[in-house]
């Protein structure tokens, strides 16, 4: 790629960036909780399905957040946005390497 093409590719990536305010890092897990007593569903072994967002931090620390079912779709969308944003930023960095080389 020549310099012009690199700049064009960079602009294209910029246009493809998801809204950087609608992002979440982590994984959404499908879990089941069981009540100890007084719940027929749990006595039957069915339990209740809950969605849990787990987020890892440096040093191996993790945090977990329960995600209400009505927010599951949004959380999945935001997780996708985050992965997409990171991938696009990484691609822009790679293009910038080429620009640096062109300047040398
Ligand atoms: Zn229950």
Model description:
This protein has one domain. Helix content is 48%, strand content 21%. It contains three helices and three strands, in the order H-E-H-E-E-H. The model has no long low-confidence stretch (mean pLDDT 95). Bound molecules: zinc ion (ZN).
In short:
The protein is an alpha+beta fold and 104 residues long. The chain has three helices and three strands, in the order αβαββα. It has helices at 3-16, 40-43, 72-103, and strands spanning 27-33, 48-56, 62-67.
Which blocks of ≥5 consecutive residues have pLDDT under 50? Answer: none
Bound molecules: zinc ion
Number of helices: 3
The share of residues in extended strands comes to: 15-25%
Radius of gyration: 21 Å
Counting helices, strands and paired strands, the structural category is: alpha+beta
Provide the helix percentage.
40-55%
Spatial gap, N to C terminus: 16 Å
Strand order of the largest sheet: 1-2-3
DSSP strand tally: 3
SSE pattern: HEHEEH
Record keyword descriptors for this entry:
104 residues, binds zinc ion, 3 strands, single chain, 3-stranded antiparallel beta sheet, alpha+beta
In terms of topology, how is this protein built?
Elements: H1 3-16, E1 27-33, H2 40-43, E2 48-56, E3 62-67, H3 72-103
Antiparallel strand pairs: 1-2, 2-3
Helix pairs in contact: 1-3
The structure holds zinc ion (ZN).
């Amino acid at each position: 790629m020549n310099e012009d093409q690199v700049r064009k590719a960079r602009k294209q990536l910029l246009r493809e960036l998801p809204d950087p305010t609608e992002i979440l890092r982590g994984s959404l897990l499908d879990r089941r909780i069981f009540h100890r007593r007084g719940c027929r569903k749990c006595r039957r072994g069915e339990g209740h399905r809950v969605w849990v967002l787990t987020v890892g931090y440096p040093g191996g620390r993790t945090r977990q957040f329960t995600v209400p079912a009505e927010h599951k779709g949004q959380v999945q969308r935001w997780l996708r946005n985050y992965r997409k944003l990171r991938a696009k930023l990484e691609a822009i960095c790679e293009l910038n390497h080429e620009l640096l080389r062109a300047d040398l």
